Amino acid sequence: MSFTGKIQTGSNEKKSKLTGKILSGIGGLYVVLSEDGRTLECTARGSLRYLGTSPYPGDNVSISEKPNGKSAIENILPRKNFFTRPPAANIDRLFISVSAASPAPSYITIDKLICAAEYYGTEPVIIITKTDLDRIKADEILSVYLKCGYTAFMTSSETGNGIEALRDYIFNNSDGITSVFTGESGVGKSSLINAIFPELKLETGRLSRKISRGRHTTRAVTLYPIVSTASRSGAFLADTPGFGIFDLTSIKRVKKEDVVGFFREFAPYIGTCRYRSCTHLREEGCAVIEAVHSGAVPGSRHESYVKIYEDIKARDPYKNRQKGMQKK
User: Fold this and answer.
1) pTM assigned to the model
2) Do 48 and 130 sit in the same domain of this protein?
3) What's the chain look like in SS3?
4) At 243, is the pLDDT very low, low, confident or very high (cuts 50, 70, 90)?
5) From the CB of residue 73, how many other CB atoms can be counted at a distance below 10 Å?
6) Is residue 318 predicted with pLDDT exceeding 50?
7) For the chain, what is the domain count?
8) How far is residue 298's CA from residue 319's CA, in Å, rounded to a whole number?
């Protein structure tokens, strides 16, 4: 099991259009893994700019080769989703890293990331790091998310515990999947990635020298094939050291009524509350709250739901206008 897709020299032979996946792009130069397994350097057609769109890592694109060996991105194929911070397209799985200690774990941070994953149609997987520092807390976190129906792992880059199980999961459940690791600074995400993929650091250095032109690639997204024979249908890992914590309040299309749908463990109770207009915040006769009291739904998850719901409600422009009118 190793990374493939190293930089090769494009062919000088004129060929018909190909399709491929963008692995990285900096300064108008893109590295694209073509459908025939070659890694090509491409520029983007100026027509894409006039259409108001730009290529990003993860994009599936159509490309053409010129007789001089240079290639160009002709079109961007339809996207499954698009993350803006940092920009990356067609992400299928979000590995959410949280430490058992140092820094202390934050349920609201985990749950915001899960909500963002659910919104974008991306499968969230919880990875608890540094379990050697606080096994009790690690067990608590694991219990919460397993109960909610999520896949979760406990790991320690220091002792190696859990690394093999996570590695097996990634290689055995990633056919056609593009995955991203994210999490707060200091949770040990880089150590975890290096423990799972020891060749990643070497490959990052090679790609950096090839395309960065002296700029730091740690600010950009880079995709790495993680199957022995890479193709558009293969598995990819997005190395994103600067991947930010998503904030649903910045996505204007998300309404407060949408939030309940991002908490999958609430689903069995929706529609069974005493009142049809129940917001599941603190109403009497709320089936979700009753499930919290019975232990069927973790209390931390409901606390996160209330926080995220109220944050989006406070963002509502009509509500803010009404407050402004009252002050006058």
Assistant:
1) 0.82
2) no
3) CCCCCCCCCCCCCCCCCEEEEEEEEECCEEEEEECCCCEEEEEECHHHHHCCCCCCCCCEEEEEECCCCCEEEEEECCCCCEEECCEEECCCEEEEEEECCCCCCCHHHHHHHHHHHHHCCCEEEEEEECCCCCHHHHHHHHHHHHHCCCEEEECCCCCCCCHHHHHHHHHHCCCCCEEEEEECCCCCHHHHHHHHCCCHHHHHHHHHHHHCCCCCHHHCCEEEECCCCCCCCCCEEEECCCCCCCCHHHCCCCCHHHHHHHCHHHHHHCCCCCCCCCCCCCCCCCHHHHHHHHCCCCHHHHHHHHHHHHHHHHHCHHHHHHHHHHHC
4) low
5) 23
6) yes
7) 3
8) 31
**Structural domain boundaries enclosing 48:** 18-76
- pLDDT at res. 315: 83
Instruction: Give the closest residue to 213 by CA, choosing from 31, 12, 16, 90.
Output: 31
Indicate whether 169 and 86 sit together in one domain: yes
Q: How far apart are CA 223 and CA 214, in angstroms?
A: 19
Cis ω on the peptide bond leading into residue 55 (within 30° of 0)?
A: no
pLDDT at 275 over 90: yes
